[in-house]
């Protein structure tokens, strides 16, 4: 069987579970990663034979995809800002919108000497990117999940980052974070209500960590985070957040109620307001 024939067969099979365009995209990405080819190389070699070991790997991937397991969990890694991060079911798969949040923080602080705290670090992709791309930054990430913190530290080590990660819940006081210490606090908190899951992919709902996705109250989540940030930021500090665009008013009201004075929003590449910056 040629690579082209396998690709056609896999797309046809996966189209029973995913929209056709998505089936095409994940099949091509799986082939690229399995065969270690870029998109041009894959296209040029489509008529080559798919050797047995690669065929078996791809059949395993297609079978797992047919049970809605995310491709990045199957591979064990995902790319974020061009760098390879270990991911598994204990951390969210990094997404393009989060890259845009990171870009915003970098653009505004790349030449500054700053202390940065990432709340809910997950795979560590936000904190590590900021550490690697803001030369004078000192970066720490915290997460309530010990498994996530382990993955973050492993990613930091693998990517030669100085960012450090530790287990901490921002909602309680049993941590060693220093009040009034940080210039920047950044977070991509859980901001999806359970009833909003009807528009989400089965893959995300089934496999990604629910604690990192869902909240019982968007307002309460952002208010608690804002209260924490007000306490741990320097008076000149800023809070950068990824947000649910459908709850912009509630989130903004929560930040103002917590004592933040200036709010700035930013649209993502799709034109949706997905980022917010707040200052005291």
What does it look like?
This protein has 280 residues and is an alpha/beta fold. The chain has two domains: 3-67; 90-279, Vaccinia Virus protein VP39 (Rossmann fold), CATH 3.40.50. Helices cover 45% and strands 19% of the residues. The chain has helices at residues 3-14, 20-35, 39-44, 52-65, 71-75, 96-109, 125-133, 146-158, 202-207, 210-213, 218-232, 248-258; strands spanning 77-80, 83-86, 115-119, 138-143, 164-167, 182-187, 233-242, 262-267, 273-279. The chain has a seven-stranded mixed β-sheet, sandwiched between helices. A two-stranded antiparallel ribbon has the order 1-2. Helix 2 (20-35) packs antiparallel against helix 4 (52-65) and helix 11 runs parallel beside helix 12. 37% of the residues are buried.
CATH architecture title of the largest domain: 3-Layer(aba) Sandwich
Give me the side-by-side strand order of the main sheet.
5-4-3-6-7-9-8
- Looking at this structure, what is the CATH superfamily of the largest domain? Vaccinia Virus protein VP39
Structural class: alpha/beta
Q: Enumerate how many helices there are, as a single number.
A: 12
Measured between the Cα atoms of the first and last residue, the distance is 63 Å
Helix content percent band: 40-55%
What is the element string, with H for helices and E for strands? Answer: HHHHHEEHEHEHEEHHHEHEE
CATH fold naming of the largest domain: Rossmann fold
Biggest pleated-sheet summary: 7 strands, mixed
- Rg over CA atoms, rounded to whole Å, is 20 Å
